[in-house]
Amino acid sequence: MKARVKSGIIGFSGKLDGAIYYYHPGVKRTVVRRAPKMPIQAQNEDYREISRQIKGINPGDGYKHDFRMYLADIRERDESIRMPSWYSLYIKMMWAMQAKYPQQVNLKTITREQILEQQLPCRSVKAAVEDGLLAKIPGYQYLDNEI
C-alpha cells in the first residue's frame, strides 16, 4: 500500500512500512510513530496490568471535563505543551502520585474506592494541584469534581 495525502483531506491514517500514521485534532497535526516491536518481558506485563488498572478506575464525566479544562488552560498559557489529551495528563499525574507516595500508592492495585477512602490527591484536579502533582494555574480551585 502506498500512503498518499491529498489536499483537502484533514489527515492520513493507517499503517505503512513499520510506521503508524494518524491525525490528532488536539495538536492539529498528523502524527507518525514506529510500530512497537518489543520482546515480551516481565516489565511489559507489569505495565499492561497498571494500564488496565488505571483504565478500570473509569473517572466520571465531571472529572474528565475538569481535566480537559485544565489541559486547555495550560495549552493556552504555554504553547510548547503537546499533551494530546486529558487522559495523557491523567496518566502522568497517576505515575507522579505513585513516585511521591510509594508506600501508599501501588498502581497495580489502585481502585476508585481506595482513592476516595484514603483521600489521595488524584481524587480531583484541585487536590492534585494543591499536592504539587499538577502545575498551579489561576482558577484551579474551581476544578473540584471528584473521580
Show the helix and strand layout.
Layout: E1 14-16, E2 19-24, E3 29-34, H1 42-56, H2 61-77, H3 86-100, H4 112-117, H5 125-131
Antiparallel strand pairs: 1-2, 2-3
Helix pairs in contact: 2-3
Order of helices and strands: EEEHHHHH
Indicate the structural class.
alpha+beta
How much helix is in the residues? 40-55%
User: What gap, in angstroms, lies between the N and C termini?
Assistant: 44 Å
**Major sheet characteristics:** 3 strands, antiparallel
Radius of gyration: 18 Å
- Number of helix segments? 5
| Order of the strands making up the biggest sheet | 1-2-3
How would the global form be characterised?
globular
Average pLDDT rating: 89
Could you walk me through the main structural features you see in this protein, from its secondary elements to its overall organization?
The protein is of the alpha+beta class. A three-stranded antiparallel sheet has the order 1-2-3, with no helix packed on it. It has five helices and three strands; from the N terminus they run E-E-E-H-H-H-H-H. 41% of the residues lie in helices and 10% in strands. A hairpin with a 2-residue loop joins strand 1 and strand 2 (19-24). The chain has helices at residues 42-56, 61-77, 86-100, 112-117, 125-131, and strands spanning 14-16, 19-24, 29-34. The longest helix has 17 residues, at 61-77. The chain starts with 13 loop residues before the first strand and ends in a 16-residue tail after the last helix. The chain folds into two domains: 8-37, no CATH class; 42-142, no CATH class.
